[in-house]
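Q: Study each token:
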Amino acid sequence: MAGTRPGFLGEGDVPKELDSLFPASSASQRTETIKPKPGICVKTRNEDKKKVFINVCTSEAIPAPEDITDQELIAILESDKPSDFRVPMSIGQLHEEKDKSGEVCLAYDVVISPAFFTKMTDNPLFHNFFMIATMEGIEEKYTMTLDKNGGLLMMFLFI
């Protein structure tokens, strides 16, 4: 193409270049449909004081995090250095639900490994860590603010 600097694409080449960077098969290779098992539901509120439910479910398709002790988690939390400890989870899309009084509220489904779910529900330290990390993940993904104090107290099992 005359007048185009070397290394730049002409207008007609853009779709071809995008297809080479993002092939159609790559999306299907990165996604998997799973049917999670029910776990717990945590009720909190967003910055508009609207009810938000976080449904924590489990699936064997989600890997368990490294198995660490209470002392190791405390050391991570007290450290100023970044940690490589991560809890693999899938945070689903926002959807609306109705609460027991029929009021429309917001809901997010979060899927974790069954092994970590058991550890989290049996251990208050890991439960609080997980719920704060989950709420921060939702806040970051959806650019919102959640009440991290009330939500930790209002937990119930669902089936």
Observations:
- Residues 34-157 form one domain.
